[in-house]
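Running this now, will post back.
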Amino acid sequence: MDRRHFLKHAATGAAVVAPGISFLSNISAQAAELKKKNKSLIILWMGGGPATIDLWDMKPDSVNGGEHKPKSTAAAGVQITEHLPTVAKQFKNLSIIRSLTTSEGDHNRGTFLMNTGRVPNPLSEFPHIGSVLGYQYSQDLEAMKSMDLPLFISVGGGRVGPGFLGMKYSSFNVRNPGAPPENVEPPKDVVSMPRRAVLFETLEGTSTTKPGMGLKTGVSADSVQAHKDVYKKALDLVVSSRKEVFSIDAVKDKAAIDRYGNNNFGKGCLLAKKLVEAGVGCVEVELGGWDMHAGIFNALATRALPTLDKGMGSLVEDLAASGKLKDTVIVWMGDFGRTPKINAGGGRDHFPRAWSVVVGGGNIKGGIAYGATNKDGTDVTENPAKIGDLYGTLYAGLGLAPDTQIRDNLGRPTAIAGDKATAIKDLIA
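Update: finished.
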């Protein structure tokens, strides 16, 4: 290669490498800022599609209004259902987006859309927002040295995966909130877990370099790395001195359990509070059973809303009292809304065209009802909001620019909140 040929290739390489260096530098800076402020996201996931017309955007003067009455909240002029009195007291810390319109009325597709901000795409599976936050956190290598808890924890959920980010950024799933996770205690006959870890790492290392040892040959490098990442996450938790954060003592924490609700959702909300205080980046807590095609008003009044009220209301109250809410964004959402029209079975069907989500904490203002639907709840009439607007607001609430880039499995950069997504300015402090 002569000098001219060399310089030509060097210039071409620089054109490719320079944007990559800039990309890595930017995400590292964002990660350091995120970790320095110890920002966290709590997702209250309402599996099945909640009837937001019966919770956050009531229509008492409409034929679609249903059996329940609206109630004033701590925010002037903002009313919600009478069956959420504890949550109503926290509306100086919470805001409603009443004008969300989405594209998916199928449970699986709606779940994917709301947890990723993207419609399903077979060519590039976008990760859960908790996985994206875990990835952002992990770029601060210095901070990660002391992080021995999973960055993304799902309580009762885990329905959407890490997509192209890989298993390293998948959620750590808790099925029985309040009890220690299964298998986090080392076997009684193991003297030293760190020594066993060194042995495991040695065997894992040889498996990728020496045929016939460890994993079978022919396994892709990505699969081997994913295998290592999953085992490392498990080991970090087993040897962690902070794994007791998962435990909720029935005696010592009785008062808190009574306030939050002695059920999986209430305990999940209590656990979420403890986890974000311990530095976990994202916690998802699921309350299912919202697919109410029949008998909706009795189901809401006797089961779903009392459970939601205790858990959600107590969570917001405690985070606000401790000052942690300023560093914790909360979002309440589900697959989609439900039809304003009440069907023949006394229920409501799937309806993504006009519905509500609730947000608060972090840099998000409280006490606001943003957007509006018409008198019957069938269409958005004021400040329509798309999924990108919601995601832009969540990321801005965490102090992350919505156009922060992440690279997909094909190496293409894409904004974490979606193309041209921006935060709702009226909701950001």
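The first helix runs from residue 3 to 36. More later if anyone needs it.
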